[in-house]
């Protein structure tokens, strides 16, 4: 459990640099100028809490999927497949110099943007929570990596915990961004974008090693084999 929390927290903290670089302009553009200073701080907290709520909900959803994989004895092979797919996408990014995203994701992206626009029209402070929840659904490579980690857990609560801690790991940088106005210049954002394929490739290799059941602590622990086949009746 400690290993799970540490890995999720580290991934979240690494992701926070990506959040500041890529999502920072949105956080800085939050319509809070009409609010008092205390409500401005509260709105930033609600916005980021909304993101964490969405991540936890995604953990619940993918936790059920991961649990089914675990019970079917497919978790090991899924880890190898997911890692291989991510590695191919990272290599493709190096070749094409742009991310590859399914067309249906573009439509979903538009739908999320509409939901965010509707939240921005509201003057109620609770709208910032809804805005953050919608923001958590935007296509993001680091969130995809976290979901891959959540899918590798064997229990639903572990998946929820992983995604929640991942979200918590992104909070310090995002709160500093929203409350203190920490800014990321264009060169920093460019470096973050250039580093993303390396991060994805690294996680892809770790997922492949994890699925290989090498018995290496933290890197390649033993995963579930054929759970159903291992059950014997007296």
What's a quick, concise take on this entry?
This protein is an all-alpha fold and 234 residues long.
Describe the structure.
The chain has 234 residues and is mostly helical. The protein has one domain (2-217). Helix content is 76%, strand content 0%. The chain is built from 9 helices and no strands. It has helices at residues 2-28, 37-71, 75-96, 103-121, 127-135, 141-151, 156-180, 186-211, 227-230. Helix 1 packs antiparallel against helix 8 (186-211), helix 2 packs across helix 5 (127-135) and helix 2 (37-71) packs across helix 6. The longest helix has 35 residues, at 37-71. It is globular, with a radius of gyration of 19 Å.
Oligomer: single chain
Rounded mean pLDDT is 75
Strand content: under 5%
The separation of the N and C termini measures: 32 Å
Number of separate strands: 0
* Domains, number: 1
Radius of gyration: 19 Å
Q: Which H/E pattern describes the elements?
A: HHHHHHHHH
Main structural class: mainly alpha
**Number of helical elements:** 9
Low-pLDDT runs of 5+ residues are 224-234
Q: Which percent range fits the helix content? A: over 70%
Rough outline: globular
The major sheet is characterized as: none
Name some characteristics of this structure.
single chain; 234 residues; mainly alpha; 76% helix; 0% strand
Describe the SSE topology.
Blueprint: H1 2-28, H2 37-71, H3 75-96, H4 103-121, H5 127-135, H6 141-151, H7 156-180, H8 186-211, H9 227-230
Helix pairs in contact: 1-6, 1-7, 1-8, 2-5, 2-6, 2-7, 3-8, 4-5, 6-7, 6-8
């Amino acid at each position: 459990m400690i290993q799970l929390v540490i890995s999720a927290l580290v991934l979240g903290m690494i992701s926070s640099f990506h959040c500041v670089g890529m999502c920072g302009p949105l956080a800085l553009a939050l319509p809070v100028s009409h609010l008092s200073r205390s409500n401005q701080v509260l709105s930033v907290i609600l916005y980021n809490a909304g993101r964490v709520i969405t991540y936890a909900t995604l953990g619940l959803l993918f936790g059920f999927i991961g649990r089914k994989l675990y019970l079917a004895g497919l978790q090991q092979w899924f880890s190898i497949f997911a890692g291989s797919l991510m590695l191919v996408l990272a290599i493709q990014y190096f070749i094409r110099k742009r991310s590859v995203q399914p067309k249906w994701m573009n439509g979903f992206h538009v739908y999320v943007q509409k939901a965010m626009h509707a939240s921005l029209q509201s003057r109620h402070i609770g709208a910032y929570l809804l805005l953050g929840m919608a923001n958590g659904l935007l296509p993001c490579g680091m969130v995809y990596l976290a979901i891959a980690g959540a899918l590798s857990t064997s229990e639903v609560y572990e998946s929820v915990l992983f995604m929640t801690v991942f979200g918590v790991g992104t909070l310090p940088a995002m709160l500093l961004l929203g409350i203190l106005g920490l800014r990321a210049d264009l060169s920093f954002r460019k470096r973050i974008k250039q580093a993303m394929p390396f991060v994805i490739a690294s996680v892809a290799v770790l997922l492949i090693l994890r699925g290989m059941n090498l018995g290496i602590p933290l890197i390649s622990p033993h995963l579930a084999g054929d759970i159903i086949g291992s059950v014997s009746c007296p």
